[in-house]
Structures are given as C-alpha cells and as structure tokens.
Design goal:
This protein is mainly α and about 90 residues long. It is found in: Membrane.
C-alpha cells in the first residue's frame, strides 16, 4: 500500500512539473535521500529513526494551510450536497 501511495505521489508531482506548475530538482532530492539513507559519508539512519523523523516533518508540512484546506473542503462539500438549502 505504501509503495502504491509513493508511486501515485511521484506521478502527481511529475504531472504538475510537466504542466509547468512546479519545478522539481530531482538531483537535490536524490542527494538528500542518499544522505538520509546512509549513502553519504556521515552514515544514515535505521528504519525507526527514519520513521520518527518523517512523522515529525509530516506533522509540520500537513499543518501548513490546513485551516484553509478544511474550510475549502467543507464549503465545496456543502455546495454539492443534493437537497441542502442553507438560505
């Protein structure tokens, strides 16, 4: 399941890069991952350390813009609910 999610994420990023919406510096991504996983000269992390660091970073990244995304999603859901009359 994790592999499928990773494949979908990479495909989505590549699609956005193809459209010109984002610029991905894959060389830097590869270098950072190699350094993180132990490909660099300073060693790497084991799986538990990597998971802890990813969880910390994911919490910070996911919390950025969360209120606006939640508000947008709520408004969009309410707008398309059949039979709902707010006014």
């Amino acid at each position: 399941m994790v592999i499928l999610a990773t494949a979908i994420l990479i495909t989505a990023v590549q699609g956005l890069a193809y459209l010109g919406w984002v610029t991905v510096h894959w060389e830097r991504v590869t270098a950072d991952l190699q350094k993180l996983m132990g490909g660099g000269s300073e060693g790497g992390m084991d799986a538990s350390q990597l998971l802890a660091q990813l969880t910390d970073h994911l919490t910070v990244v996911a919390s950025q813009g969360l209120p606006s995304v939640a508000g947008f999603t709520t408004g969009l859901t309410l707008a398309f609910m059949p039979g709902l009359q707010i006014i």
